[in-house]
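haha ok so turns out i had the wrong file open the whole time. this is the CORRECT one, sorry everyone. sequence first:
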Amino acid sequence: MKRVLLINYKAYKEAFTKGVDIANAAAEVSKETGVDVIVAPPFTMLKETKDLVKTIAQGVDEVDPGAFTAHITWFELKQSGVAGTLLNHSEKRYTYSKGGEIAYDKLQQAIEKCKAAGLETYVCVENLEEARKVAAMEPTAVAYEPPELIGGNISVTSAHPDIVKEFSDLIKKNSSSLPLIGAGVKRAEDAKKSVELGAEGVLVASGIILANDFKAEIRNLASAMVN
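then structure:
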């Protein structure tokens, strides 16, 4: 089974000014290490990166094509040629209201529609309860990201190693989904620890997008998961 390094560009300015270069670096490192390096750029960049390296969107709505202004459908992702989508990130949660509980019915609809279209789904969760419910939906991967650590300098593998292990075991025992670890993951030791605790990869954003030598950071993280 390949390890996964998923790079979320978010909406940083650097995503647009360095995004193509990051995609090229991701492709090179993926070839070197055998790690499945995936990029999730802004929607306006999907067609720029999809031919360079495995690319997924940053989100999708549960609706079908039709009169849904400003929605993103599985159909347009399929037409764009990307491999899949990120879902339920803490900055774009699948909820009925701001700050509310996950709208699991809508999330499941989105996952099922993407699956039917041959699109991969990488679903973020904030705790073990969410992880258990999402695992039952059998997405491609489930990524554990405690919101208080996202964008910070403390990795979840340092702050909550016991929960990381419990999460990884839960996903593997209850689904065929890959367990991924995010939130504060920036260093090679964070990626290495994630794998040691049972994860199959990591989800990273600012640690790569804002790095001066992003190629070195990609290589360090990928190499740490296979060596």
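The two ends are 15 Å apart (CA to CA).
again sry for the mixup
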